[in-house]
Structure formats: structure tokens, C-alpha cells
Amino acid sequence: MGETVELSPVDLEILRVLQNDARTSNKELAAAVGLAPSTCLDRVARLRETGVITGQHAKVDAAKVGRPLEAFLFVQVRPHRRPLVEQFVEHLLALPEIRAVYHLTGPDDFLAHVATTSAAELQRLVLDELTSRDEVARVHTNLVFQQWQGGPLLPPDGEPAQGARIRRRDR
Predict the structure, then answer these.
(1) Is the pLDDT of residue 163 over 60?
(2) What is the DSSP string of 45-61?
(3) CB under 8 Å to 99, separation ≥6 — which residues?
(4) Arithmetic mean of pLDDT, 31-45
(5) Closest to 28 measured CA to CA, from 75, 18, 48
(6) Helix %, strand %, coil % for the chain, to 5?
(7) DSSP code of 135?
(8) How far apart are the C-alpha atoms of 71 and 68, rounded to whole Å?
(9) Do the beta carbons of residue 116 and residue 72 sit within 8 Å?
(10) Which residues are CB-contacts of 37 (< 8 A; sequence separation ≥ 6)?
(11) pTM of the predicted protein model
(12) pLDDT tens per residue, range 114-138
């Protein structure tokens, strides 16, 4: 899938801290992981260059920006072929209501997480932007009542992440 990146325990701790608060200053991060600030900065730069850290994002409360109704749309497309899949994903990602899109196995081909202003807007999205397309065979909608966020995406203690080798020496 991807190129193997060698991660030390210190690298994993840097990732753990930054995933919990990407605004952590380099000085605070260095202190938290036991490195000199210049060394810590080099480590973070390496994690970015190798693609382990892919960006920093602000988590936005959809309701507080006028999109209080969230839903998951399970979409089946036919025929399920690469050129059609790519066009469909481009279409979805161009819609402002889309929060995330996943390509799936099983009876549904896509899962789209959406945030809309109202039930009427959700209905418009489904009817005008999805089921009106020739390749869309079916859309199944589930509303989101509440959500919880998981913790940092790191391997369990003692187990390397797939695609990553962990060096056990370091500091």
C-alpha cells in the first residue's frame, strides 16, 4: 500500500501528542517527548516529508456553523467501474455538504458523511445530487444522533503499524 517508514518510540510519542493537539508548540512538544527543540523540529519535519503526518486540521462543530443535521448516505452505483467511480467521487467531493467519502466493499459502494442545514436540505441533496445521477442505483440514509471521536491512530503497544517499522532504540 505505502512505503515503509521507520518509526521510533519517540516518533510515536510525537504523533500521539500532535494528534491530541496539533497546536502544541515545538518547545512544549520537545519537553513532552524528552528531546531538544531543534531535534524535535527535525523529527516532525521528517514525519511530514515521509507522509506520516499529512496535515493539520481544525475540528469544526457542524451545528455551530449552520449544518446541524448529519447523516451517513450508503450509495450503490452501477456499473461499478473505475472511470465511473472516479467521476462520482469528484462529484461528491465538490458538494459543500460532504464531510467524508469512503469506498466500501459489500452491498454498498460508498459511504458519504454529510452535514446539512435541515431535513429538507438533506432530501434535496439525496434527490438532486445523488439519485438523479444515472449511475446511482440506490441511496440508504441514516441520521446521526450523536458522535464520539476515537483517540490517536497509533499501533497498540509493542505492535508495529502496518507499513511501518518501529525502531526500539532511541532518543
Answers:
(1) no
(2) HHHHHTTSS--------
(3) 62, 70, 113, 114, 115
(4) 97
(5) 18
(6) 35, 20, 45
(7) T
(8) 10
(9) no
(10) 26, 27, 30
(11) 0.79
(12) 999 999 999 999 999 999 999 999 9
Strand intervals (E) in 9-68: none
Cα 61 to chain centroid, rounded: 16
| Phi/psi-derived region of residue 55, left when phi > 0, alpha when psi is between -120 and 50, beta in every other case | left
- The distance between the two most distant Cα atoms of the chain, rounded to a whole number of Å, is 58
Range of weakest confidence among 53-57, 63-67, 75-79: 53-57
What is the separation, in whole angstroms, between the first and last Cα of the chain? 29
Site of grid cell 462543530: 61
Can you give the pLDDT at residue 3? 72
Q: Judge whether 77 and 110 are in contact, CB under 8 Å.
A: yes
In angstroms, rounded to a whole number, what is the distance separating the alpha carbons of residues 4 and 113?
30
Task: Provide the pLDDT for residue 162.
Answer: 47
Query: Which residue is listed with cell 448529519?
Result: 70
